[in-house]
Queue: 2 jobs
Job 1
Amino acid sequence: MSDLVIRNIGTIASGDIHAPIAAGDTIVVRDGLIASVGDGGDADGISVVIDAAGATVVPGLCDNHTHPVLGDYTPLQQQLDWIDSYLHGGVTTMLSAGEPHLPGRPTDPAGVKALAILAHRSFTNLRPSGVKVHAGAVLLEAGLTEADFAEMAAAGVRLVGEIGISGVKDPDTAAQMARWAQASGMKVMVHTGGASIPGSGIIGADFVVAVKPDVAAHTNGGPTALPLADVERILDETDARVEIVHNGNVKAAGEVAALVAGRDELHRLVVGTDSPAGSGVQPLGMLRTMSFVAALGGVAPELAVAAASGNVASLHGLNVGVVEPGREADLLVIDAPLGSQAGDALGALAIGDTPAVAFAIIDGQPRFTKSRNTPPAMRPIAFSS
Ligand SMILES: [Zn+2]
């Protein structure tokens, strides 16, 4: 846990969808938590200083849709250190949408239960490169009982992975299990659109309306998009968050974002990558998806930031994702990339450029002082300690 001050901030995009720009030029962090946001602030005794040189600060990004397995390794793409690479794309929190890529994944009740508990426990004890990975998202299989959900919840499992990519395909069984899970405090996600990996199915609005999940996953496709009219029905007939992901249909990403914005329901929009997947590993997937939402969906970039941070934190009840006193100090200093036609990070998102990440801070601790994956920043952002 660390103390830190960020000075000379040009813009603070707060991550709060209802107040997306925070006033002030200084953020003070004490003991890993945000102590103050505004002009000046009490930075007495703090030696770690970032001079943002007029750049932008946003919350660390919260990827609502990842498929981790164990540690910083993805078996699907035979790749190590993918989570560290995502940190270099601004991701400080990840939510699992299931661990289907485990080699030899079990499909019996005892097996899926054990896997969810193991993944949850493992990532509770492990923070790859500091990233907060919330894993252990049970994938539904026939035979799971109400008592099984209570047992998993008691062991800390808080997520039901994408319904539709595992054995339970009929809406009645899925709805019954979703009720048991939600009664145990779990958040339930339903896959939507076309099939993804072998074993997954095609899911439209009828299924989502029957199951009433907390999240309709990748409504722009994972990877194949469902009709926009189905997204509209999901918005009309359920309370679910609607998700836009990197590994979907790019045109549909813009259409869904514009639809949700036009209904004045951007508090229901959450952003993820849906990775690792067949489309690979995308360290900049969150930043790029935010640029799709802003540039193709016509959504104000600070609202795209909130959909990729505060909205996800609010969905899962996490004390991250918003730049305000008392929150865990997971912060990014971002800027227009060198050579961009935009003047700052939000302007870059608005024209479809990927911002530069100059600093990623987790719990008040700078994890790096220059992203190895984004372009360099336009401004001379400086660090002293
Ligand atoms: Zn999916």
Note: The first strand starts at residue 4 and ends at 7.
Job 2
Amino acid sequence: MTIRDHHTEATRRLGIAHPIVQGPFGGGLSTVALASTVSNLGGLGSYGAHQVPPDRIGETVAALRAHTTRPFALNLWVSDHDPGGEQLTGAEEARMRALFAPYFAELGIAQPPLPTRFHPSFAAQIEALLEARPPVFSFVFGIPEPRVLEECRRRHILTVGTATSIAEARALDEAGVDAIVATGAEAGGHRPCFLARSEDSLVGTLALVPLVVDRVRVPVIAAGGIADRRGVHAVLALGAGAAQLGTAFLACSESGTTEAHRSLLFGEASERTVLTRAFTGRLARGLVNRWTTELDARTSELAPFPAQSWFVSQLRAAAAAAGRTDVLSLWAGQIAPNLKHRTTTRLMTALLQEDS
Ligand SMILES: Cc1cc2nc3c(=O)[nH]c(=O)nc-3n(C[C@H](O)[C@H](O)[C@H](O)COP(=O)(O)O)c2cc1C
């Protein structure tokens, strides 16, 4: 059966025509154009909103609604900080400023003062999301409290949680979510674990999907290492009800990343990815560059999430404007060397075409 005609309990619940989910991207890399194009082509488009302030969540959902009448997901991070990452002591701030000083100097920019918050509060974001009522609320790094899931059900917002292990999948299933993303260690972006250390949450997609499928009642969406029809067929054969692709959509022109990052994703540099805390303080997969090499050698000096993430993000605009890719977070999953398509429509068309 071709992918376009493969209807599952996941596609039925989510109200989508085809078993394809565009993975959400945080850090300003999601766009309304990307998510709405995927939804309009019969997949589930997603918008990563973990860094969107609560008072802008309503307008984000409204913009998505203005571009598609089909279902889409808004994505948040349930855990908005790690211990010690929300506030820095004077000594910690001084250490971070010293660590980052050479990079600010190289880019010719001053270090800004610390903000009152490094990251929006999930508690405030979720109230805004409930108010905005997106068709689907997907989340990572935990499980919202029962009241929130209950309120989602009452407001007809479908909930999709994310698991990196059997234990996390069981916990999500027991909490009553509508679907579970099982995300293997091949995936680009963070290890979105919440019950064990990231370093102990590295099961690959081929093992994780059937482990989860066999143990939960709800549909499973497979993520990690999927970029073409072979990958989608493989996870459907393992029992997943849909495939979630991240890196392949990130490389498309509609995503919010830079041209410099895209060209690396399509080049030889894509053959080397690494799991690193250099980008945000949480373990995440991206391309090896000077940034990951220099900061991974000093992991004990990095700040926990989100303080580390804030310092890195202060460099981003200047680095991007200067066309620099050596001091930028270059997110990528292990499947990047096989990327082929540069627009969302071409990627979706290729995924949905008849098998030859
Ligand atoms: C740059 C980047 C940012 C991401 N941000 C999020 C996020 O905020 N929330 C989330 O649920 N998943 C996030 N992900 C994971 C993707 O949605 C998707 O599950 C993953 O990329 C799939 O693996 P693949 O990259 O091998 O296709 C991110 C991935 C990337 C590459």
Note: The two ends are 11 Å apart (CA to CA).
